[in-house]
Write the structure tokens for this entry.
Amino acid sequence: GMGIDINIIYHGTEDTAFLAWLMHQHVIIHNHEPKWLPIIEKLRLKGNQEASHLYSHQGNYIGTWQRIDIPLFIDAEYCLLLDADTIVHKKFDLSDFGLDITPGIAFSNEMFEEDTRPSNAGVALLNVPKFRQTYNDFKSFFREHADEEKYFIGGPSGQAAYLDFYKGYNNEDASLVQHLDTTFNVKPYFKLQKNFDKRKIVHLDGLKPNDIVKGLMGDQREDFPPATQVLLTRIF
């Protein structure tokens, strides 16, 4: 990250020691008090906890939506959003995203590593001016879903909302939703050696390190949240 600004959008009042340490490392902290929290809580409360563990915890669910307000804090053409459960493994720069860089958003694949459909927003390449241009329309879009109790087609939480919104929003020649190369979002349960050899970012999606240790120590399937049980057979 040397020479590149690292920004954290933080919502909360605790973690003062950790925030002080981050600032000492020259990380830019943005205090975030989103005005859309009541809308998001409506979506969370009607969510299926067996489909996603995020619905069970208000703080985790809010975190999946904080990227909404990136245009309020970031003044750049592009930014790469990383969830807190990611590890940057290899150095890269803007040229690694190629000449056909997304004019909107780029997500990588979810559970299946050879799937090239954009689906997982844990690592997301974002065109910030496009985010800013569509900011109010997008808020109206998810507010309508909350008020009318409609589900997003693409799955749970914020990532599905973005996929639904931008695919419907697109009236341009190039797709606003593109696939981000799998090497930017390698999961611990992936199997292809080429992806691990070329990995730039590892994403501890679903099962966290403590969950993996629990599995190694012999914890049973029923000891894990329903939404993460499907991943156990991919690791153990």
Summary: The mean pLDDT is 89.
